[in-house]
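User: Here's a chain of 422 residues. Predict its fold as tokens.
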Amino acid sequence: MDKFIIKGGHPLRGTIKISGSKNAALPIIAGSLLADEPVTIHNIPRLQDIYTFNNVLRVVGAKVHFDDQNNVVHIDPTQVSYLEAPYDLVRKMRASFYMLGALVGKHGYAKVSLPGGCAWGPRPVDLHLKGMEAMGITISLDKGYVIAKAKETIKGGEFTLNPSSVGATVNLLLASVLRAEEFTIHNAAQEPDVVQLCNFLAERGANIDGIGTSTLTIRKTNSLSGGEVYNDPDRIELGTYMIAGAMYPGNDLTLTGCNAAHLGNFPEQLRETGTEVNIDGSIITVKAPEVLQPVSISTAIYPGFPTDLQAQWASMLTQASGESTVTDTVYFDRFSYVPELVRLGADMHNEQNTVKIIGKTPLTGASVMSTDLRASVSLVLAAMVSKNTSEVLRVYHLDRGYESLETKLNAVGAKISRIEAE
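Assistant: Prediction complete.
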């Protein structure tokens, strides 16, 4: 089990290329199972979740070749015959649950283990199942597995997601495009990941109205074609490096391969801290201010402040001059990073779904432990601005969502070593 040794106090200067989006890639990989021909997806990041999901596809019979040096995955779904996604793979990542919609949508049957994933918070799949039942799919549970059955054509209907959910929107899309006469999803997620999946399916022949809005209406099409698709850049990785660029005086980062339109209001919120943010097409430059201003945020569904960036923002606010708060309205208990940042010297405490931060506090190196993907990277950001040396344990969480994190950061001045923990 690897850990990072991080020597803090080194400014970041240089260029980082943003990788392809994991959260957009996984739904597209699942959606490729609906096609009648091979699919090639470009700009796929080298992440543990991608390797894991590729293995899930191989289990059901798809042929998958991941040219990871060129970030291209080739998927041939024409030999899928084993319509079950087993627990030992699905437990490793929640996105494997997309197999439920993909398999029942294409083949009329699926047996998929209930998912695992990050070790924080209740993230139920009730909406996925209730939505499929509203569509006309028969759902049953058997010893930790969900069994879904659908006739060749189901009537469809409508379903309101409350709350809006990316995962449920994806699964309902996958289940309906080849099966439902007409099915409407109300309060559908509008994240770029969902929009890209809709566009991918539509380009293959799916009939989807309302792409990019909160109301999606799907009408049955008999088949989907294969072909090539280019994955979007990762907006959460982009936001993470923008925050990193703001945290330490003298930082001056250039980020390439970006899509600023996917960031919502985030650039403007970062500017409010005094950080200089310039956007020129696919290039974003970030320069840290001499004095970082405290800016409180509250997460919200897209295009609001992303819950996947709140831990990183909280880490940054430890270096801001004054009091601030971070509130998560999406997941109420996503604050496992707080006691770890306190170990580094942060003055912060959380109550319910809000953490109060008093800055600026000098941080000093310590041993801290990762608990989930975004909490992990918040500890790395804090360690990079700390005095002396820190160790961040359990960095396998980072490998699930950040391609070559230490390589990219070291190239712009960070001092991060990966070593095998005892």
